[in-house]
Structures are given as structure tokens and as C-alpha cells.
Automatic annotation (TrEMBL):
Residues 5-74 form the Bacterial purine repressor N-terminal domain. It comes from Desmospora activa DSM 45169. InterPro entries: PRTase-like, PRTase_dom, Pur/Pyrimidine_PRTase, PuR_N, PurR_Bsub, WH-like_DNA-bd_sf, WH_DNA-bd_sf. Pfam families: Pribosyltran (PF00156), PuR_N (PF09182). NCBIfam families: purR_Bsub. Belongs to the purine/pyrimidine phosphoribosyltransferase family. PurR subfamily. The lineage of its organism: Bacteria, Bacillati, Bacillota, Bacilli, Bacillales. Keywords: DNA-binding, Transcription, Transcription regulation. Homodimer. PANTHER family: HYPOXANTHINE/GUANINE PHOSPHORIBOSYLTRANSFERASE, PUR OPERON REPRESSOR. This is Purine operon repressor PurR. The keyword Transcription applies. GO terms for biological process: negative regulation of DNA-templated transcription; negative regulation of purine nucleobase metabolic process.
Length: 279
């Protein structure tokens, strides 16, 4: 087995940690891989931890004991989080996003792999201490955000469908009523996709009155699951809010179809502060 140079060891070790967030890696795994003493591995990890901390990208958490090791916890600094919110606000303000009926076009944002990855990392940073067992979202546009968040938390994704499919096997289905239009609908979740008693984090792309998220709350109760957090990329001002406890990165205050103008501010994560960063 080859002997690693320290510079190569540091690069590879960093990559190993970044690619497996929240996974506990025994020091012996690194020692065997690099043919190095645990004391040398510990020194390397101290260097990596310091770089992560200074750059506001995360931290290394040490677990002592025979079954202990080291795990990478993704974190996003307040400064970087606000920059991401500003980026989303700038994109949401574009008049070209306005669709008939006052709806907003969001597919390009949810197709931007870097933006989605950054949002997922931010949500993982915000909810990292909630002991999440699974990320739950509803089809279809929230799926990229859910996978990005789950990837940074090291947990699976459970997708709620608006209709049951034969390929899902046995499912649980409930009736829902949207918060704004009062339309009836259904939400379904495969019994195999979420173990009973799980701690679930709900992630979605856009929330109006919160009818869909409220429906997911009700559906998860059928699994005896606990909702430990709700994160949405953006929300809009609503007279009647069906969900109170949630975090958003941007808030759409007004969509003026006639004037082709969209008023946007930083979301609830930033207490509705100025989206231009004047905090």
C-alpha cells in the first residue's frame, strides 16, 4: 500500500469528509487508508477544522470512545447565508418571472445546480441539530431542494405524491384543502418510504398560504412522525397562514401584474430584514 504525502493526505481527507457529511468516520479508517499514526491524523484534522471554521463552511465534530470518530457538519455563516438570500431576491425581482394569474416562474432557479446545492447546504446548516431522520417534500418542484438538503444531512428523501401510483406499493392517502383556492386534493406517501416514528424535515420551493405544507403535517401524523422543521426557498404574504413555524430565504411581498413589478425581501430566516443586506 502506498505511503501518502501529507499534502495529498490533507486534500484526500478533506474530500472524504465533504462527500460524507454527518457520517461518523473512525480515526482508524483514516490511519489505515493513509498508513499514518492516529496522532498525525489528528493533527491533519485540526488543520482541516480550522480552515472550515475560518471560511464559515462547517466544522468537524469529534466523538470520543471506542465507537467514536470524526464527522463533518456543514455550516453556513450568517454573512454567506445573507448573500444567498440576496441572490435569490435579485432573481425573484425579475419582471419576466410574472406568469398569467400572478404566478411566478421558478423552474430556472430550481434547475440551477449550484444555487440548489447552496440552498440545500444552508437548510442543512440551519436544521443540523434537529436529529433529522428524513427530508420530506411534495412532488415535483421541491424535489431538487429536498435532495440537496438531504445530501448535506446524510439522510434519505421521502416524496409525497398528489396521487397514488402502483409502483409505490401500499400507501397512506389523505384529503387536503389548499389554503388560498380552497380546492380539494389528495396527498399520498408510500409506507415503505418513511419508517413510523421518524423525525421529518419538510422542504419545499414556494409557500403561499401553506395548504400543501399543512397537508404534509397531517399526512405525517399517520406515520406517527414528528415534524422537526420546515424550510422553503421563498414564501409570499398571505392573509391566512396555515403554517406558522417555518423558515424561508426570501419573501414575495407583492406581485403587480399591471406594472410588471415584484416586491421581495429577505425571508423569515432573517426576520424579514432588507434583502439588499442593509442589516
Amino acid at each position: 500500500m502506498k505511503k501518502w504525502k501529507r499534502s495529498a493526505r490533507l486534500v484526500d481527507m478533506t474530500q472524504q469528509l465533504l462527500s460524507q457529511p454527518h457520517r461518523l468516520i473512525p480515526l482508524s479508517t483514516f490511519a489505515e487508508r493513509y498508513q499514518a499514526a492516529k496522532s498525525s491524523i489528528s493533527e491533519d484534522l485540526a488543520i482541516i477544522h480550522e480552515v472550515f471554521r475560518e471560511e464559515g463552511e462547517g466544522m468537524l465534530q469529534t466523538v470520543s470512545g471506542a465507537t467514536g470518530g470524526i464527522r463533518f457538519i456543514p455550516r453556513v455563516s450568517h454573512e454567506n447565508a445573507l448573500k444567498l438570500s440576496q441572490q435569490i431576491c435579485e432573481q425573484l425581482r425579475l419582471p419576466s418571472r410574472i406568469l398569467p394569474g400572478g404566478y411566478l416562474y421558478l423552474s430556472d432557479l430550481l434547475g440551477d445546480t449550484k444555487l440548489v446545492r447552496d440552498i440545500g447546504r444552508l437548510f442543512a446548516s440551519v436544521f443540523y441539530d434537529r436529529q433529522v431522520d428524513a427530508v420530506v417534500t411534495v412532488e415535483t418542484k421541491g424535489i431538487p431542494l429536498a435532495y440537496a438538503t438531504a445530501g448535506q444531512l446524510g439522510v434519505p428523501v421521502a416524496i409525497v405524491r398528489r396521487d397514488s401510483r402502483i409502483t409505490e406499493g401500499s400507501v397512506v392517502t389523505i384529503n387536503t384543502v389548499s389554503g388560498s383556492s380552497k380546492r380539494l386534493g389528495t396527498l399520498s406517501l408510500s409506507r415503505r418510504s418513511l419508517p413510523e416514528g421518524s423525525s421529518a424535515l419538510i422542504i419545499d420551493d414556494f409557500m403561499k398560504a401553506g395548504g400543501t405544507v399543512r397537508g404534509m403535517f397531517d399526512l405525517l401524523q399517520e406515520f406517527h412522525a414528528e415534524v422537526v422543521g420546515v424550510g422553503v426557498m421563498a414564501d409570499s404574504r398571505a392573509e391566512e397562514r396555515l403554517v406558522d413555524d417555518y423558515l424561508s430565504l426570501a419573501t414575495v411581498d407583492e406581485v403587480d401584474v399591471r406594472e410588471r413589478r415584484i416586491a421581495v425581501k429577505a425571508g423569515t430566516l432573517f426576520n424579514g430584514s432588507d434583502c439588499d443586506g442593509d442589516d
